[in-house]
Amino acid sequence: MEFEGRRGGWWVTGLVAFGLLFVVFLEGWVLGGFTEDPLQHTPLALVEDGIRVRGPLPPFDHTEQGKYVSRFENGVTAVYTIDTALQNAMENYFKRYRVPYGVFVAMDPNTGKILASVEYSSVNPKAERLAFRATYPAASIFKLVTASAALEEKKVRPDTEITFHGGLYRLGPKNWVDNPKRDKQKISLAEALAKSCNVAFAKVALRWLNAPTLQSYAERYQFNRPIPFELPVQVSRMEIDQSERGLAMTAAGFGEVGLSPLHGAMIGAAIANDGIMMSPCLIDQVRDAKGEELYRCVPKVFSEAISAQTAQSLREMMAMTVINGTSRKAFRVKRREASLRGITIGGKTGSLTGEDPPGKYSWFVGMAPLEDPEIAVAAMVINHPKWKIKASQVAKEGFASYFQSENLRRIASQ
C-alpha cells in the first residue's frame, strides 16, 4: 500500500505540472508570445551578444537623413553606423587609382561604431569581405604590440635609447646581438617606432621581454581571439617561435602574424581610447514595421588592452610617424588639405610582401585628433607589380574627408 501511495502521488504531481505547462502555453498563444521571429524574412538575426547578418550584407545604396538604410519586404528597417560622405569619398578614391586591392576601415574609438568599410579590387572585382580577412601579414603594425608590452611592463620609456649598427632596416643575429665595438648608432624608442627601425624592436624584445610576455600582450589586443561582429571576421592568428630568432623577428614585425583591416582599426581605436578596445558595431538600430525598436547598438567594452598612460605615450610616439617618420611625405604640412590644418594625427606604417593575395602590402593604422581622438583608421593596399598608392596616402584622404564633413556639420548646426 505504501508503494502504491507514492506512485499515486507522482501521478498527481505529473498531472498538475502538465496543467501548468498547458496554461503557460495557452497564455503565450493568446498574448502573442509564440508569434514568428520579426527578423525571419530578413538577413538579420538577434543573438545573445547582439545581432548577426545571415548571408550577404545588403548594399549601401539607399540613404535616409544622411544614413544608409535597408528596408526589407516585411517592413523591418535597419540603419547603419556608416558615415555616408566618408564611405563615398573612399570608394571614389580607390576607383581613381585602380589599386589591385585596397581596404579602408574607420571607426569611432569611443563607441566602436564603424564609420567606413570600403573594399576595392581592380584584379578581382568580385572579391568580398576583404576588410574581415586576416590572411594579410601584420608587418610593422605589430611593433605597436611590442612597444605596448615594453612600456606597460615599465622596461622602457619613449626616450629610452637603443644602440645598434647596420642601418634601420637590416635584421639578423649579426646586428640584433649587442656589440659595443660596432653599436655606434643610437635611436630612442619613439624614433624607432616613427621610423620603423627593425633592429631596435628586436633588441627591445630580446633585452626586456620574452616570448610568453609578447604573446600575452598580443592577446590583450585580441590576436588569436574571435571578434564579435555582425559579419564573420577571420581570427588574426599570431604564432611565435620560442627561440631568440622567433622573438626578435616577431617583435620587429616579421613573425607569423596575420591581421584583418577591421582588427587593425580596433587596435588603433584602443590606443586612441586610452587602452580600452570597444566591440565593433555596423548596424546602429533595427525597427519593425510599426517603428518599434528591435535592436540598438549599445557601446560595449571588448577588452582593456593597455593602461591609459601607455596609450598616451603611444599616441605621442605615433605623432612622430607623421611629423618626421615613415609617413611624413604623405602628411607633409605644406600639402595638407584645408580640413586637416590644425589636426594632429598619429599613425604607424607597415610594409611586407605577402602571398594571400600575392603582392606588396602597405599598412597604416592611426587616429586623430590626438588630443581627443574622434576617428581611428586602418588602411591597407596591396600593390603588384607596380606601386599605385601607399596606405599612408589612403589614410590621409580618409582623415581629410572625415574632418571636411565634420566641419560642414558643425557649421550647419550653428
Give an overview of the whole structure.
- The chain is α+β, with helices and mostly antiparallel strands and 414 residues long.
- It has a single domain (80-413), classed as DD-peptidase/beta-lactamase superfamily (Beta-lactamase), CATH 3.40.710.10.
- The protein has helices at 2-31, 84-97, 143-152, 173-176, 189-195, 198-208, 211-220, 244-251, 261-272, 308-324, 391-413; strands at residues 44-47, 50-53, 63-64, 67-71, 77-80, 101-107, 114-120, 161-164, 185-188, 238-239, 256-257, 276-278, 283-287, 293-296, 301-304, 346-355, 358-368, 375-383.
- Strand 17 (358-368) and strand 18 form a beta hairpin.
- The longest helix is centred in the first third of the chain and has 30 residues, at 2-31.
- The model is unreliable at 1-8 and 21-34 (pLDDT under 50).
Outline the secondary-structure elements:
Elements: H1 2-31, E1 44-47, E2 50-53, E3 63-64, E4 67-71, E5 77-80, H2 84-97, E6 101-107, E7 114-120, H3 143-152, E8 161-164, H4 173-176, E9 185-188, H5 189-195, H6 198-208, H7 211-220, E10 238-239, H8 244-251, E11 256-257, H9 261-272, E12 276-278, E13 283-287, E14 293-296, E15 301-304, H10 308-324, E16 346-355, E17 358-368, E18 375-383, H11 391-413
Antiparallel strand pairs: 1-2, 3-4, 4-5, 5-13, 6-7, 6-18, 8-9, 10-11, 12-15, 13-14, 16-17, 17-18
Helix pairs in contact: 2-11, 3-6, 3-7, 3-10, 5-10, 6-8
- Summarize the helix and strand pattern as letters: HEEEEEHEEHEHEHHHEHEHEEEEHEEEH
CATH topology: Beta-lactamase
The tally of helices reads: 11
Mean pLDDT: 89
Low-confidence stretches: 1-8, 21-34
